[in-house]
Amino acid sequence: MGIFLRFLNSEKDRMGHLVILGDLFEFLFGFKDKPFSSEVFPFADYLPILEGLQNLYHQGIRIKYFEGNHDFFLHSFFSERFGMEVEVYAEGNEERLGGRRVFVAHGDLSNPKLWRHRTFRRMIKNRWTYGLIERVGPGFSRRVATWLSQRSYQKNHAAPISGPPPEFKRFAHQKFLEGFDMVILGHSHFPEEMEERIDGKKCLYFNVGDWMVHRSFLRFTPPDRFELGRWRDREIGR
Predict the structure, then answer these.
(1) Cα(168)–Cα(209) distance, integer angstroms
(2) Interatomic CA distance for residues 218 and 180, integer angstroms
(3) List of residues 6+ apart from 208 with CB closer than 8 A
(4) Is domain 2-230 classified as CATH 3.60.21.10?
């Protein structure tokens, strides 16, 4: 957590926008009608990161948050809790970067063959389930979310994966055929990039990877420079 905050601090002076592709936390839900204080806030352990984002916002940095498969009902969470206007997207969205038509999403829906995940996602991400989570409260909801996350990790990460799944590049290729110039995803936990020519047009795909293992991020410098990098904290080497 501290390393991520140092990363944000190191980048803030040259940062105009910050785009988070979801799953920044283990479980984040936009609970309503809960008083805000460090004692009763349902995600008190997340406060350092959330307050770090709040500081960036007050410095004039625009923030966008694309919900992942660990984020739920955040459309007004940041404004009601922290007084910062964050653009929240429950699904992917079309953006414009350097004159390019760009599709941006968390990426967990990139593989159409994962029908179990898609079905489970529809069961979880809907207003009826959100109402139930709101009713049972944060304590029980977080315990259930942690249990489900552990089960998912044991099932999907029992054997080490040597590289990024190919489905993400296939998904990007399909978006290129739909007319997008660029695709930016996360979720795979593997930073990667690809350049492809479609009818003579250069198309780019980036996966930002993950922070826990690779400390990877994508930097866009106007007008048209994209750099997939890995951040090294100087304090680690001391």
Answers:
(1) 12
(2) 18
(3) 21, 184, 185, 186, 191, 216, 217, 218, 228
(4) yes
Q: What is the pTM of this model?
A: 0.89
> In terms of C-beta density within 10 A (0-12 exposed, 13-18 middle, 19 or more buried), how is residue 209 classed?
buried
CA distance 64 to 120: 25
Find residue 71's DSSP bridge partners. 28
| pLDDT tens per residue across span 64-102 | 999 999 999 999 999 999 999 999 999 999 999 989 999
Q: Is 179 helix (H, G, I), strand (E, B) or coil?
A: coil
Nearest to 104 by CA among 10, 194, 47, 183: 183
Q: By C-alpha distance, which of 104, 112, 88, 237 is closest to 170?
A: 112
Sign of CA pseudo-dihedral 124, 76, 63, 10: negative
CA 188 to chain centre: 11
Q: What pLDDT digit, counting tens, does each position of 102-130 carry?
A: 999 999 999 887 888 788 888 888 989 99
What token pair was written down for 58? Answer: 């007050």
